[in-house]
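Structure Section — protein described below
Tokens — whole-number codes for backbone shape
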Amino acid sequence: MSEDRTIRGETTMTWGDQARLSMRPVVRSMLVVSLAMAVTILLVWAITSSDSAWLLLRHEPFEALGLVARDRTNGSG
């Protein structure tokens, strides 16, 4: 009575399911690349910053980030 039965058939994915399946690797890759870019930019900034920029970041973090956003950390501007 223990017969092996194979069930065969087909199914069609909905448009939304197909889109999610197709976009998941793309989104994951974009997140990884974005994170790598952010870390790289942070490292470049950290390596090229002056001591005064580091001190300003430690004592006034929001002002320092505003200056970095306006690219005025070196005092010229």
